[in-house]
């Protein structure tokens, strides 16, 4: 547990335990069920307004390079008029950056924590949204890579990369899709809790969050188009391979047909009577086969 004090006190807790919950209980008359819920992550995001405080559960995505997809990160809030309590279950660099800024810069501390809890809450959410937007960059980079490599005859490899990207986008969407309703609820409840002065801040949060969903939808449409293109290229490559095998089988059938047309006993008689006649016939067949292959190659049939 760490604390910054201004007119508003910000208490930040990483991986809360029973001692942390006991300390929070002494600060305000929070409901025991709410306090108990802080001991473990919650399955859904929400905003709940009680008589003198607001309880918030917020999820945002964070990319896991080992799993090659985005996973859910949680940040919880207990907000009174003069206190902001944030609870999280893993280290959050964005939160650390803001905490260090307010700890070391008195001007920023007076600005953000010098009134009520509105500005501090707004600043924390702004940084969470900015982090979500930056997390989209890895999707953008991977989509751009696939777009550049798709015509380099790496169909199976590209297909695997596309599958990873689509899974990442879908996981990202599952995490961020509820945020639109969440910020609408935050605005509605925030207006009741902080009053009309909060409208501009809460509306700004809704607007700032929209590019996350728009960019995500755009990347999903692009990767689906690339998947279709890659499938067409794979089909074309498969058809070309089948065509080559078909022509090769045809060329190989010429000498085989010649042998079977003459018959094995007849060939043996020719070879025994005159090896010159035999080899002349075989060379002629091979010449015809080579000539047909050359003509097909020149006409780009094979």
Question: Any overview of this molecule?
Answer:
With 302 residues, the protein is of the alpha+beta class. The protein has 2 domains: 2-232, CorA soluble domain-like (Beta Polymerase, domain 2); 236-298. It is built from 10 helices and 6 strands; from the N terminus they run E-E-H-H-E-E-E-E-H-H-H-H-H-H-H-H. It has helices spanning 18-27, 32-37, 93-104, 106-113, 117-149, 155-176, 179-194, 199-262, 264-273, 275-298, and strands spanning 2-5, 9-14, 46-49, 54-64, 69-79, 83-88. Strands 1-2-6-5-4-3 form a 6-stranded mixed beta sheet. Strand 5 and strand 6 form a beta hairpin. The longest helix has 64 residues, at 199-262. The mean pLDDT is 83.
Number of domains: 2
Question: What's the main sheet like?
Answer: 6 strands, mixed
Low-confidence stretches: none
CATH superfamily of the largest domain: CorA soluble domain-like
Q: What form results from the Cα inertia axes? A: elongated
Number of helices: 10
- Spatial order of strands in the largest sheet: 1-2-6-5-4-3
Given this structure, which CATH class of the largest domain is correct? Alpha Beta
CATH T-level fold name of the largest domain: Beta Polymerase, domain 2
Radius of gyration: 35 Å
First and last CA, distance? 73 Å
How many runs of DSSP E, i.e. beta strands?
A: 6
Strand fraction equals: 5-15%
Order of helices and strands: EEHHEEEEHHHHHHHH
Provide mean pLDDT, rounded.
83
